[in-house]
Write a structure and sequence with these properties.
The protein is about 90% helix and about 0% strand. By secondary structure, the chain is mainly α.
């Protein structure tokens, strides 16, 4: 008889634990409810974001095109720049030569006036 009592006690305890666990389990997740206004506002934000991304892509493409054009122009002008640098160097050398000649002529004129 004692064994039957303990078995009944164990069964009751098991049922209580099962009920406890069932109560602790979260209820089924509630369905996400979104009002029409919220959905419309979200849709508008997404449309604006898409437009913004399109504009940024177009701006980037235009900037890349300008950069490519500028690089091409730079490569075209590089030989001209080298030519002008050489010409400038030659003109500076010629100027220094002329200055020396003028200084010698002035020195000769000073010697004549004495």
């Amino acid at each position: 008889m004692e064994q039957a009592f303990w078995e009944a006690e164990m069964e009751e305890q098991t049922q209580n634990e099962a009920q406890s666990e069932a109560q602790q389990l979260p209820a089924e997740p509630a369905a996400l409810t979104v009002s029409v206004d919220d959905f419309s506002a979200l849709e508008d934000r997404i449309v604006r974001a898409v437009e913004l991304v399109k504009q940024e892509r177009q701006a980037r493409a235009a900037a890349e095109q300008r950069a490519t054009h500028a690089e091409n122009h730079l490569h075209e002008q590089a030989p001209r720049l080298e030519q002008l640098e050489k010409e400038l160097y030659a003109l500076k050398a010629e100027r220094d030569h002329v200055r020396q000649r003028v200084e010698r002529l002035l020195a000769q004129l000073d010697a004549l006036e004495l």
